[in-house]
């Protein structure tokens, strides 16, 4: 199962970074290139424990729909979203937050599994892990800019 780990340093209070990371509206801004728009469940504002959100998005030229749910939340230290339905066989995205001096350290741990057995594994290694890393890096860039701008 592929695992992506990213660490982002943000000069802003932990509570602000945590809430921006749960913002449906900011997520849509960070994924503008894929056309993600929340269409069911929590469709704007801050997503919370037990809530779901459904997003259609275009990846690799194909429209897909993904529903994820917040399965853990410990403000301002951690929240976890997991796929309920979608193109992946499974995914789990842990969002960890700590502080060091005057900055917040945001750590993503994203684990996913694709269908199609060996073909899915080859696709993961050749294309998908890099693609997902770039999506997460863009999301984190948007969060950092929003947090540091106010």
Protein architecture, described:
- The chain is α+β, with helices and mostly antiparallel strands and 150 residues long.
- The protein has one domain: Alpha-D-Glucose-1,6-Bisphosphate, Chain A, domain 4 (2-Layer Sandwich), CATH 3.30.530.
- 32% of the residues lie in helices and 41% in strands.
- The chain has a 7-stranded antiparallel sheet, with helices on one face.
Report the end-to-end length measured between terminal Cα atoms: 38 Å
According to CATH, the homologous superfamily is START domain
Low-confidence stretches: none
Coarse structural class: alpha+beta
Level-1 CATH class name: Alpha Beta
Number of domains: 1
Overall mean pLDDT stands at 95
Question: What secondary-structure arrangement, pairings included, does this model have?
Answer:
Elements: E1 3-10, H1 14-21, H2 24-30, E2 40-41, E3 52-59, E4 62-74, E5 78-85, E6 90-100, E7 103-113, H3 117-149
Antiparallel strand pairs: 1-7, 2-3, 3-4, 4-5, 5-6, 6-7
Give the gist of this structure:
The protein has 150 residues and is an alpha+beta fold.
Structural key phrases:
150 residues; 3 helices; 7 strands; alpha+beta; 32% helix; Alpha-D-Glucose-1,6-Bisphosphate, Chain A, domain 4; 7-stranded antiparallel β-sheet
């Amino acid at each position: 199962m592929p695992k992506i780990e990213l660490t982002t340093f943000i000069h802003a209070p932990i509570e602000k970074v945590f809430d921006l990371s749960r913002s449906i509206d900011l997520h849509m801004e960070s994924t503008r290139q894929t056309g993600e728009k929340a269409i069911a469940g929590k469709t704007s504002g801050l997503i919370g424990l037990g809530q779901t959100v459904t997003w259609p998005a275009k990846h690799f030229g194909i429209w897909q729909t993904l529903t994820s749910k917040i399965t853990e939340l410990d403000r301002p230290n951690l929240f976890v979203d997991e796929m309920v339905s979608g193109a992946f066989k499974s995914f789990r995205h842990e969002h960890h937050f700590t502080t060091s001096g005057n900055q917040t350290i945001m750590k993503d741990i994203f684990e996913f599994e694709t269908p199609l057995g060996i073909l899915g594994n080859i696709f993961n290694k050749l294309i998908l892990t890099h693609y997902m890393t770039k999506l997460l890096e863009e999301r984190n860039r948007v969060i950092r800019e929003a947090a540091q701008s106010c």
